[in-house]
Amino acid sequence: MASFAERFSKKFKFKVKGIKLHHILFLFLAFFLVGFILFFRSSGAVSSVETKERFVIEPGSGASLVGANLEKQGLVKNSLAFKVYVQLTGKAAKIQAGEYLISPNLDLFGLVNLLLKGPEEVWVTIPEGLRREEIALKIANGLSLAGTAKNVFIEEFLTKSKSLEGYLFPDTYLLPRDITGTQMVTAMKSTFDGEMDFRYTANDIILASILERETITAEERPIVAGILINRLNAGMALQTDATVQYAVGTVNCVVPTAVCDWWPRPLTQADLEINSSYNTYKYPGFPPGPISNPGLSSIKAAINYEDSDYWYYLHDSEGQIHYAQTLEGHNENISRYLGR
């Protein structure tokens, strides 16, 4: 009896350059079987060693890079087999960045299952310009803390960082899940100290913390710093919205949930009247301390500020900054760019 492939090719007279369909099906089956055998040979454990090794997945790493690094560390036999398996099964997107402890005695399937359980240590990114309460909440959420554990971490972090606003360095940290609030504060302050390979003063950090909240681009920061220095030297009030927002936030920022929606909203007249030493509309000079935790760009701009004849600045609705040398010019910018 003729095979299905023969009957199919006869019925439709199917040939490709003299090759009959059943030949093509046979070759396809052969390639499939060879690939299947090679895949399973590649999916076995690299060795019988049970000692666990530290393996780190950087944020943004794709299946190809993860597979290549696993093969490089001797944790899988073949990076391509890893990539094909996690992508075809839809598991690639479920593998989180972080640190894992993996032994080379796991086969490919056991290793992937371990990765899917989540890392021993996780990456948490702290952006520039947050205040302590926001940092504490971001870390607690990044560690997937909840309930009492979350509250304990946040309270401990805030207690230990009480005098360190401005000195908690924004960065991406690889953190063990059981890190304490005290350990986190120590790590952030140590990172700050390690980055400061130049001289700075307490006022430099205060100014940098204001720049972090008042500016948008690195290019404008030295100019705005120079404007604020001009006001400071003239005995004029700094009149920065960000310092008033900090004062308002100190009253309204709820811990441990850290609902600090005061940063983005416009100030009201009542806000401008708040009786706080951070209200730079009422009190001249620098506020008593930093209002955020700045990054290197803002710190360097505060130290290496740019001298200019500007005294005023504002951002339009698209984030473009506009400077003015006089109050009249500033009012014109307000009318032109803000429609007020």
Secondary-structure map:
Layout: H1 4-12, E1 15-16, E2 19-20, H2 21-42, E3 53-57, H3 63-72, H4 79-88, E4 98-102, H5 108-116, E5 121-125, H6 132-142, H7 147-160, E6 172-176, H8 181-195, H9 202-214, H10 221-233, H11 241-252, H12 269-272, H13 296-303, E7 312-315, E8 321-324, H14 327-338
Helix pairs in contact: 1-2, 3-4, 6-7, 7-8, 9-10, 9-13, 10-13
Outline the structure in words.
The structure is a single chain. Helix content is 48%, strand content 9%. The chain is mostly helical and 340 residues long. The protein folds into four domains: 4-42; 53-119, Endolytic murein transglycosylase (Dna Ligase, domain 1, 2-Layer Sandwich), CATH 3.30.1490.480; 122-195; 202-338, no CATH class. The strands form four sheets. A two-stranded antiparallel sheet has the order 1-2. Helix 10 (221-233) crosses helix 13. The chain starts with a helix and ends with a helix. The relative contact order is 0.09.
